[in-house]
Amino acid sequence: MINKYNTHLLTTKFDYHVPSSLDEAFKLLEAHKGDVKLLAGGTDLIPQMKMRRVEPGHIINLKDIPGLTGMKLYNGSVHIGALTKLRELEKSPIIAEKAPLITETVKAMASVQVRNMGTIGGNICNASPAGDLCVSLLALDAKAQIASPRGVRSVPLEDFFTGPGRTSMGADEILTGVSFLAGTGNSGSSFIKVGRVVLDLATVNAAVCLKLNGDLISEACIAIGAVAPTPLRLKGVEEYLIGKTPSFEVFEAAGDLASETVRPITDVRSTAEYRKAVSKTIIMDTLDRASRHAGGQ
């Protein structure tokens, strides 16, 4: 008998489909409803199949569908196709200039080998509460573009995640990309990840985007991961910061508020108590770095 937990072999049979258009993909989703998985980079799906956590009868590889890769600027926003590789984001001059938070985040993710295969869409749709890109895209106030036979809808990312491994997408829908406003001269961002070892999933991670108007914080977007069933926007902390002058005291109070807001659990990576304590420190540090990147002192 094959070992159920053998991580080297795909032990179940499935049919493999490679549609050349979204319409063809939608027809396949309808034909095999309930027994199908979409494949982007495969860095999450294939390990789950090897461990037999999921056993779909059909795999739909989206790689040949046009328009799902690449990055572009349009009307002050950055648009990224769902099948864009993490390594492409890491090396992109557009992303480095207009969304350095994404560059910083991707460099902290996995290994180069994984980043050469993994995609931004696959990472988001995996919907891990500890997902690094999920947290940073929340801090960028990103929107997900979701296509179906009925058309395309745009969903704020904070409404996209509904639970561990779950999203608001329907069974006949496909994520086609994400978009967010490009950074400006008075904005700054920061991403920090705490883990057990290098390349591990985050024990706690956080991302911050700030805008300054003179010496005052005029806008703040803050997200934190691995401390709730979904990546979390810290709306109360954001509201507290508006109109404040960046300082240690202000950021310490923001860290305290973050620690009071999170709802962590104890698991194999950490205890709930540790995550609450780290939440304060990581929010303080990301706020300090983002403020400095925005020109604050």
Provide structural commentary.
The chain is an alpha+beta fold and 297 residues long. The protein has three domains: 15-61, Uridine Diphospho-n-acetylenolpyruvylglucosamine Reductase, domain 2, CATH 3.30.43.10; 71-181, Uridine Diphospho-n-acetylenolpyruvylglucosamine Reductase, domain 3, CATH 3.30.465.10; 187-293, Enolase-like, domain 1, CATH 3.30.390. The protein is built from twelve helices and 14 strands. A hairpin with a 2-residue loop joins strand 4 and strand 5. It is globular.
Topology:
Layout: E1 15-17, H1 22-31, E2 36-39, H2 45-50, E3 58-61, E4 71-74, E5 77-81, H3 86-91, H4 93-98, H5 100-107, H6 112-115, H7 120-126, H8 132-139, E6 143-148, E7 151-156, H9 157-160, E8 161-163, E9 166-167, E10 174-181, E11 187-194, E12 204-213, E13 216-225, E14 232-233, H10 235-241, H11 248-261, H12 272-293
Parallel strand pairs: 1-3, 2-3
Antiparallel strand pairs: 4-5, 5-10, 6-7, 6-10, 8-9, 11-12, 12-13, 13-14
Helix pairs in contact: 5-8, 10-11, 11-12
